[in-house]
From TrEMBL:
<protein>
    <submittedName>
        <fullName>D-serine deaminase-like pyridoxal phosphate-dependent protein</fullName>
    </submittedName>
</protein>
<feature type="domain" description="D-serine dehydratase-like">
    <location>
        <begin position="252"/>
        <end position="353"/>
    </location>
</feature>
<comment type="similarity">
    <text>Belongs to the DSD1 family.</text>
</comment>
<dbReference type="InterPro" id="IPR051466">
    <property type="entry name" value="D-amino_acid_metab_enzyme"/>
</dbReference>
<dbReference type="InterPro" id="IPR001608">
    <property type="entry name" value="Ala_racemase_N"/>
</dbReference>
<dbReference type="Pfam" id="PF01168">
    <property type="entry name" value="Ala_racemase_N"/>
</dbReference>
<keyword id="KW-0456">Lyase</keyword>
<dbReference type="InterPro" id="IPR042208">
    <property type="entry name" value="D-ser_dehydrat-like_sf"/>
</dbReference>
<dbReference type="GO" id="GO:0036088">
    <property type="term" value="P:D-serine catabolic process"/>
</dbReference>
<dbReference type="Pfam" id="PF14031">
    <property type="entry name" value="D-ser_dehydrat"/>
</dbReference>
<dbReference type="InterPro" id="IPR026956">
    <property type="entry name" value="D-ser_dehydrat-like_dom"/>
</dbReference>
<dbReference type="InterPro" id="IPR029066">
    <property type="entry name" value="PLP-binding_barrel"/>
</dbReference>
<dbReference type="GO" id="GO:0008721">
    <property type="term" value="F:D-serine ammonia-lyase activity"/>
</dbReference>
<feature type="domain" description="Alanine racemase N-terminal">
    <location>
        <begin position="14"/>
        <end position="233"/>
    </location>
</feature>
């Protein structure tokens, strides 16, 4: 039976071949530059896709929460890093997980460092997250007083072990000059490594953002690359120049429920609860919540004529359709939507359907 025959409602499809190619490309790039690839698994959130990653020599992974780390435990990862400013209310949960899995956490202030030093019952590593201009979280690059105090506190605990510095230059998603942001991030980590390497000769530095890691070819003495979105890519990454549409490896299959030839619109079952509400803006100022691809037995093809989701509500999606699409679609057909933000779409959907008809796990679908 075709995978298409299994679909009656919005379904997130995954092309294993494209996903594996994305993993292979980034693993090869890291190896070529002598870096360790530690992907951020907030995008895939899947044990099965994790096994694919391990086939390309990826041995460590990053989680966005202790909940995701818990889901990934016992899957053969040498270390799982929780790349979110650690929530000290979860220390008891961290202690339980650390009994059987090597873990590391992210520290951004002395209060968290002190709580961990006081309450950890198991060995746990930590990175100090650095803010070099993004402004969301992290210790400012010039705040050596806080960095020194965190390190001093850690030395009082036999279970809290400094691993290095972590930097997520998320402003590459918004900044015009991505190469300049990447260079500034690289230089910030080099400064920290130079300053603290004598006291901590084993410290490593990690940089994690898909636009920088996918496009740039100069990483200096950064030790580890930690991008996440590259596993699937999406339309936002296409717009940023990180990939081509052909590299996007997930799409939402949506049923057609109504067609308006007069308005040149197609109503589909697929809205905010399936795609999330991330949006791009077209050249004419109209909104784009996802672009239409044509499904077939082998996956999907990108049509030469462009149609896109012009609006979405909770369950509804309205496609602004090309003349070619209108001439070939009927009520009951399935269309594919390339997501604007694949991480959020996958999180909404909670599982994947492969092109050979198999359900692939996602952390949000396994309770």
């Amino acid at each position: 039976m075709s995978y298409l025959d299994q679909i009656s409602s919005p379904t997130l499809l995954i092309d294993e071949k494209i996903t594996r190619a994305n993993l292979q490309r980034m693993a090869d790039k890291a190896k070529r530059h002598g870096k360790k690839l530690v992907p951020h698994w907030k995008t895939a959130q899947s044990r099965e896709i994790g096994r694919w990653a391990q086939e390309y020599g990826i041995s460590e992974v990053t989680a966005s929460s202790i909940k995701l780390a818990e889901y990934l435990c016992g899957q053969g990862w040498k270390n799982i890093h929780i790349a979110f400013p650690f929530n000290i209310r979860e220390i008891s949960r961290l202690n339980r997980l650390a009994e059987s899995q090597n873990l590391s956490v992210q520290i951004v202030n002395t209060s968290t460092a002190q709580a961990l030093a006081n309450q950890l019952a198991q060995a746990v590593g930590f990175f100090i997250e650095i803010d070099a201009g993004y402004g969301r979280t992290g210790v400012p690059i010039s705040d050596f007083e806080t960095i020194d105090e965190i390190l001093k506190i850690a030395k009082t605990s036999p279970n809290l072990h400094f691993k290095g510095f972590y930097l997520h230059p998320g402003h590459t998603y918004y900044g015009v000059d991505k190469s300049k942001i990447h260079e500034e991030s690289r230089e910030a980590l080099h400064l920290l490594k130079s300053k603290y390497r004598q006291s901590y000769p084993e410290l490593v530095t990690r940089i994690g953002d898909t636009p920088g890691c996918a496009v740039m070819e100069e990483f200096g003495d950064v030790d580890e690359l930690g991008p996440g979105n590259f596993v699937f890519f999406d339309l936002m990454q296409v717009e940023l120049g990180s990939c081509a549409k052909e590299d996007v490896s997930v799409c939402l299959a949506v049923p057609v429920v109504d067609i308006s030839l007069e308005r040149k619109e197609i109503l589909v079952h697929g809205g905010g609860v399936h795609l999330a509400k991330d949006v791009l803006v077209n050249d004419d100022g109209s909104k784009n919540f996802g672009e239409v691809v044509l499904l077939n037995e082998n996956g999907w093809i990108i049509p030469s004529h462009r149609s896109f989701l012009k609006s979405i509500s909770q369950e509804h999606g309205v496609i602004k359709a090309s003349n070619e699409l209108l001439a070939n679609v009927k009520v009951g057909d399935l269309l594919g939507i390339l997501p604007v933000h694949s991480c959020m779409t996958a999180d909404c959907m909670g599982e994947y359907l492969s092109l050979d008809g198999k359900i692939i796990d996602h952390a949000e679908g396994c309770h």
